[in-house]
Amino acid sequence: MRLVDSHAHLQSDRFAPDVDAVVGAARGAGVERLLAPGWDVGSCRAALELSERFGSIDASAGVHPHDAGRQTDADLEAIEQLAEDARVVAIGETGLDYDREFSPREVQLTSLRRHIQLAFRVGKPLILHCRSKRGEQDAQDELLRELESAGVGGGEWRARFKERVPGLVHSFSGPVDYAERALQLGLAISFSGLSFRNGEGATAEVAGLTPADRLLVETDSPYLSPPGGPRRRNEPRWVEVTARWLADQRGEDPDAL
Q: Which residues of the chain have pLDDT under 50?
């Protein structure tokens, strides 16, 4: 299979001892490209270093909602400067996390709005993290309201991005109507090892209804190992497990998908 891991934090300290071997194993498993998303200024710069070192790695620039409360105005200005770099292909990961709430909700919202404005300005798609507590969807509903309020999916955004998606829902989790509304805004949806966990039954239905040209797979390494993957540290080579699951949900040939 020819694969792309659309979300792997290879700049994490957990890969520091053997990142070359991890990238080599991914290539051996058919992973032709991967994206190393940033979560704060330091990790964004580290992603750019990886991009320079390995031609098959792309970078993003952004602040994770968990880290939003620790960022200064200077940090956010640095993110905006990094976003202009040609090696940066996306903005984020940003979004809302109302499950663990490591940052206050209003701080998360302020950060999200700034990232949305940045994505439009530089013409690079958003990487959107979104989590609610089990059985709730307040983060998903609020994320969609913010995107709609900013005009995502409207004429100005369509003119800015043309045939490209304005953003993607990273590591999808949530109800079917959330996915449907996200797709109406023109977003892509990415599936990870989270799809296999208890309580994620709606994800299989979403896997079937997402248009083929807006499907992505990811590992979210070093997190979210799929079945058969190592529990201690997920790696990009295991993205194949999710890709085959996705093909099975859609009744399609994995290689063709």
A: none
